[in-house]
Design goal:
The chain has 402 residues and is of the alpha+beta class. The chain has twelve helices and 16 strands. It has two domains: 3-176, no CATH class; 189-401, no CATH class. The strands form four sheets. A seven-stranded antiparallel sheet has the order 2-6-7-1-5-4-3. The chain has a five-stranded mixed sheet with strand order 10-9-8-11-14, sandwiched between helices.
Length: 402
């Protein structure tokens, strides 16, 4: 298996400054490579500059700007160019599929937070002993940085990344050949229905409350954002007070993100520990949270009809606050490590199909919480019905595996 480990770095003041310089110089390299591609497309009969062309220029760039670009790892700079190339590949794929393209944009220094070293030993070195307080990671141009290694590493370290989050620095290790740790079988299987009223409901009838971390911090976050917005544009990023206000907003968002991730890990671990197989809906969260298209009023030129955008915005915020996609990814990772099975199924009409007669209709969902079949009169909790239908749809797969 492939696993990632994230540890807090404890750099000195000088190393912190060097890490900041490394991010700025890699950001400059990224933006310069992007500008070259834009210029080539505009002024050279729409010719294409590829990764191989830009990687071949690195040697000359490092020799020309030895003070900035020359002191960092060559392979990490290649990884930055691959990052840009990956963005362009995604752009052309979206264009080909008729989706919203989203042309690659220039990165601000505050939005370029990661430098990747593709191979342990090439510009970086992980030097670790389990639970050793003297654990270090060596980064070219920065030095040996102390690491708070709170758990042992399993497998072989392949790539190392230095990541900035707020005013803290982390090292992210990507390891392969990580052995699995199978849990003893329980003989239980479960289906889950994700929602916003309840975070999830199981086919056993249990509800897991939705913590709504964003709503809980909404008042404090709104106050911090209003304070940040009071600064005029001409003084932004130039005063100490503005930077402090921006850090406060970022700190609140970080707290919400960490609370949500902690909740997802604990909930997924409980499901994996107590069940041999977990079935869930295959959700398209991006499509579910898409903004409704405007409806032009043909009777009044320039006017638009109501399209429910305001109500949809509240629902979108609740869905994104729940973080279904992140939770399902965490669930899949924990299941793989524990030797459990996760089965995604088609999500259509799971909460509209009657468990008694199999009739599927929109009218069966009387309210958000109540299911009432219009054919046979069967009533139940709508989320429980959805979770049970999810389990039933995965039943053939589970029986086959068993």
């Amino acid at each position: 298996m492939i696993r990632a480990y994230k540890f807090l770095l404890r750099p000195t003041a000088r190393q912190t400054a060097a890490l900041g310089d490394m991010l700025r110089d890699h950001c400059s390299l990224y933006n310069g490579a992007l500008q070259e591609r834009r210029d080539a497309y505009r002024h050279s009969s729409k010719s294409t500059v590829r990764y191989g062309d830009q990687s071949a220029q690195l040697k000359d760039i490092r020799a020309f700007d030895a003070e900035r670009q020359g002191r960092w790892s060559f392979s990490s700079q290649q990884a930055t160019l691959r990052r840009l190339d990956k963005a362009f590949q995604a752009f052309f794929r979206r264009v080909k599929n008729g989706e919203t393209p989203g042309y690659p944009r220039f990165k601000g220094v505050g939005h370029f937070d990661t430098v990747v070293f593709p191979k342990d030993g090439d510009g970086c070195r992980w030097d670790s002993t389990p639970h050793d307080p003297q654990t270090r990671v060596r980064l070219q141009g920065v030095g040996h940085i102390r690491v708070h290694q709170h758990r042992p590493i399993k497998g072989r370290v392949r790539t190392i990344a230095a990541k900035r989050e707020g005013n803290r620095w982390y090292v992210v290790l990507s390891c392969d050949d990580v052995p699995s740790e199978p849990l003893p079988p329980t003989g239980a299987v479960v289906g889950i229905d994700l929602g916003v009223t309840h975070f999830l409901t199981t086919s056993d009838g249990q509800h897991v409350a939705n913590p709504r971390f964003l709503d809980a911090m909404a008042a404090e976050l709104a106050e911090a954002q209003r304070h940040l917005a009071t600064f005029p544009k001409r003084t932004r990023q130039r005063t100490k007070r503005h930077r402090a206000a921006a850090r406060k907003v970022a700190k609140l968002h970080t707290k919400i993100r960490k609370q949500r991730a902690d909740f997802h890990h604990k909930t997924a671990r409980a499901l994996v520990r107590d069940h041999d197989a977990v079935a869930h809906e295959r959700l398209n969260t991006a499509g579910m949270t898409r903004t409704p298209k405007p409806k032009p009023d043909h009777a009044d030129r320039g006017a638009f009809l109501p399209n429910g955008a305001a109500a949809k915005a509240g629902l979108n915020r609740s869905i994104l606050d729940a973080g279904w996609t992140q939770f399902l990814q965490i669930l899949a990772n924990k299941a793989e490590s524990a030797g459990r099975l996760v089965v995604p199924v088609d999500a259509r009409n799971t909460s509209r199909t009657c468990l008694a007669c199999g009739h599927a209709a929109k009218e069966n969902r009387a309210t958000q919480a109540k299911f009432a079949c219009v054919r046979c009169g069967f009533t139940a909790n709508a989320d429980h019905v959805g979770a049970t239908n999810v389990l039933n749809r995965a039943g053939l797969v589970l029986c086959y595996v068993a």
